[in-house]
Task: structure prediction
Amino acid sequence: MKNIVILISGRGSNMQAIVEAQLPGARIAAVIANRPDAAGLAWAAERGIATAALDHKAFASREDFDAALAAQIDAFAPDLVVLAGFMRILTPGFTQHYAGRMFNIHPSLLPAFPGLHTHQRALDAGCRLAGATVHFVTAELDHGPIVAQGAVAVADDDTADSLAAKVLRVEHQIYPQAVRWFVEGRLTLAGQ
Ligand code: GAR
Result:
């Protein structure tokens, strides 16, 4: 059985998709948020999943927060840490500690559009395809070896919101799939 710890900051719909996939050989050991009011925490707690909140605003530095967060995560002995809408920039020490065992999902076809406002930027650039990427986390924000991508067509009348909704449906397919591959031991990391 592989222990999965999921980190969220808000509604946690990707976390829900992974929980609801009921992946064989995977146990959702905990859901942890950096915001005590993250809606996904209540959803997970209602399903009997251990939850914790660690408010980043209570820490003097990123390093202090990341050290406390890592201690919290490691208490659940994770095989895989899953960032699911976890909106924090992570310190190099933190990403190194979880090298090869931490995933992120990003709402663009990386390496295009790392960072924020991905859907508006894809529209502004005239992209005909948009999508989402699951990748191993490295020190560089929204970079790292790609595990899975899903693409959607951009319609002429798409707005940032309509595109986000389309891409989110794809996220809910590729994230459980990527976690399944990890749990099944089907992923190996070779460079990028
Ligand atoms: C998702 O669209 C995810 O790709 C994005 O935040 C949203 C979280 O939604 N993540 C990032 O932008 C990370 N750079 P959720 O809380 O419903 O899963």
